[in-house]
């Protein structure tokens, strides 16, 4: 070490003296280092080929030369004291540290000279190795950065690990020792063989019963009972953090603050609360880390603010709260969920406008009920204006929209009417009306008009056209980008040329291509916005069609669930597998299986439209199949297979229901837009004069298939 210090000092001293001479300063000869000192050269060297993470020395045999162990990033090298390689181990993992723990016993054994060491890895594993072979492996809770083998409380071989966060752990290999002493059998003890055989037979019988009984299993320790409590404060405020595209609407919308409390019966850790809402609603914050929640006394609290951010048609007001946590006992990650229905006041407001008669371009939906109509101000108190004269009519409007939705109630015919400029705007209010009236009383609804499939198909056409337009713009944008890059290369080659030449109008072409790319980008952004808006309208219209079809033919819960799965309200704007391709495959499969004309017909091969381009989709076939699906359900078809649900008892109104069904078959599936020459009602504009509530068709009558030849 003295030689190294002298060599380092000589280099440092010479450089310091040279600097002092350049500055004209006097040099103290006593402080100068001898210039005759030589640089230190290594006796030997070994090329590792990687960075060394640690170096340790040991003796393989007592009173023998030292052995050098070097831990690299992917290898371990064992060298002699003169630089000769003894062995090398190549790892398939990333080591973090190592320690040599050769004991006195292993060093005294001259017949088996070896090196024992422990390697810690970044995968939280300890490998106990001997020379180049791994003898044992163990898992630790953290990545060790330092390992030592120590004797603690007269226990030898304790492995102490230190993590980068300062976590110190003391571990040992193996298990706790067990008693191996065999109890002595007294000579006077006599064993009854017959009694022992009976006990053995009895025990075997109990074991067999326990193995066959699923209730007699060893259960884990009960986990923490975590609950989510939602405190609705009903404290509305206003916010202007919106992204409305229309400039003729007010951008200030109400916001609602909801307090969330998370309770646990025992201590939990890594608690994470996530909030999910459907657009155009927004939750802030949508993710909260609560960390450690301990016992009954500790409660995790959070405040979430909800508001309408985009000017899109809302189709779902449900907010889902998900809490994920780890239990302290077994450190297992678990999740719980809870749903909460947001008030409609967040997305809509009452609009002071007199309710006028239905125009020719408006959509109307009329629902009949078997009970007197309710006061609309009590059904929708958050949208009520407080005017007692308007109890049979209500006009509302979504934030960011200029379309009005009118809700009318006729006490004479016991009907509710929804009318709006678009079919999608009716869904949310009609669903809320049915839910709230059904929750307060056992009311039944009826829809006797034709399904508004023409309006629904118009939304499908618009959605498909926007998808095709986005795909075409994207293709044109890709071609323009390639052209722009090619012009750039031509210009660069001309600029690099030593001989000046004309640009051949490449600069003008480059500028025009750049302007074209910018225009296409703006057009694509606008088309994507229109596609997103149309996707929300399609979701609302799809939910409304499923609801009307369920009410019209009194679908069971299983059939309604399958119908919502086939006509899914979840839209996808992907070019390869969008909403049209998914629904077309589901509807086609249903028409070929459960709704097939002949139950014995084979499924055959189904044409696949998934994975093709959007332009290859035949949208007319999709609309025809959706219409056929609705017709077969109206004629008594069922989406549930007959083998799973069979009814043997006939309802007493089956004869009347059959007559009612035959009457419904004659009604064409057309648009529900009001014609100008239709009759008008005194209480409901352009209303229906039917005062008698039509009996709903029974399940048995709906199962009767019509044998007329329908196309897929």
Automatic annotation (TrEMBL):
User: Which residues are in coiled coils?
Assistant: 186-213
Q: Which UniProt keywords apply?
A: Coiled coil
Gene Ontology CC, one term: membrane
> Which parts of this chain are annotated as the region Disordered?
1-28, 637-712
State which residue ranges cross the membrane: none
Q: Which residues form the PTHB1 C-terminal helix bundle domain?
A: 555-633
- Residues of the PTHB1 GAE domain: 252-338
Identify the residues that the record assigns to the PTHB1 N-terminal domain, covering every copy.
1-177
Keyword match Coiled coil: yes
Does the keyword section mention Cytoplasm? no
Domain PTHB1 hairpin span(s) in chain numbering: 450-551
Q: Where is the composition biased (Polar residues)?
A: 639-662
Which part of the chain is the PTHB1 platform domain? Answer: 343-442
| GO BP: any one term | cilium assembly
UniProt xrefs under PANTHER family: PARATHYROID HORMONE-RESPONSIVE B1 GENE, PROTEIN PTHB1
Q: What is this protein called?
A: PTHB1
